[in-house]
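step 3/5: co-fold with zinc ion
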Amino acid sequence: MSEFLDLELQDGIRMPWNVIPGTKQETVNCVIPVSAIYTPLKPISDIPVLPYSPLRCRMCRSILNPFSIVDYVAKIWVCSFCFQRNQFPQHYSSISENNLPAELFPQYTTVEYISSTETGPIVPPVFIFVVDTCMIEEEIGYLKSALAQAVELLPDNSLVGFITFGTYVQVHELGFGLLPKSYVFKGTKEVTKEQILEQMCFFAGKKMPTTGVIAGTRDGLSSESISRFLLPASECEFVLNSVIEEIQKDPWPVPADQRASRCTGAALSVAANLLGVCVPGSGARIMAFVGGPSTEGPGPIVSKSLSEPIRSHKDLDKDSAPLYDKAVKFYDQIAKQLVHQGHVLDLFACAVDQVGVAEMKVAIEKTGGIVVLAESFGHSVFKDSLLRIFQSTDDNLGLSFNGILEINCSKDVKVQGIIGPCSSLEKSFVFRHCYWSRKH
Ligand SMILES: [Zn+2]
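step 4/5: write tokens
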């Protein structure tokens, strides 16, 4: 047993069975199925870090590893998964039994590669705050002070965006230093990517391409147009603080017999689309601060009329919550979009009333986000949890964003599925973890 514990320390893998059944009958007899618990980014003290790209099998894309069979004379390696023979590239020509590349050392069963060619340039983490304003003044005050504290702790290089919402969605232009400026979207309707591109002047003065998906600087978006909304924290501290300072209760009057008009769904779809337009495929998280139920636009959980009570556990059990399925469907759509973009949704829901976590949770779970529930934004559960995310000495806050887990196995092994904070990328054995953390 101790040898398996040593392996766990080295590779972050634990298996209920350390022997794989050899026959079909043996497989059937296994009450607990053969599985592996894998801890990505497990802190391993002397993990080798190799400053180049991994060598992949030309057939199955598996990586050269200590179990591969190597012919040092012919300079060929045999893939241990599909038995394909692969020629070593030129820069491996000096390989010999006494001159092994690190990835072939028998003890290096887990290694890390730092490769700029496979991953592209390293993009700093992106945080986009989505803040509800349909709250009483006291709650807004608590939230403002918590946000101001969190902003202080943002890593200097991280990019920050800021959205507020109530009856309307407001995207604040942090790169416009002189006056507070924002783009306003109706809360009643879902906003598409195309509308974001057009209405937020991403192609001002230039012709917008009529075909294809536009995503990031690669597709013709100028970095100036992006940096109006997503700015390095070190450059927008002053503007960000004044935007937070100026947050006010949603100014639209609420009749006495109605709930506030809160367009949570529209605001989240604006945030998801803005990230999709500006920084797809890079580590970003939407941090939503919500103080009540969504009543307006896409994915409401209750109508505005106070005469209609909010759905209860019983209603959900009996399938008699009329808005539930539609709202779940909407958030499932958001989840798919965020997973595709590699982005995370976190929810800080602080209210005595329900805010609709049951409907929204699909988007948080699939992206590996965090949920914090408290009765008030003044409660220490909320304040401490928010600060804890940002308290770190590391520039990336000890977080790893946008991970992709690819599983290669030999013909005799069939992967049945995966459990954990990840979503399928709809290719066999490829899953995305939008969020891994060494902290949790
Ligand atoms: Zn192979």
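step 5/5: annotate
Residues 434-440 have pLDDT under 50 and may be disordered.
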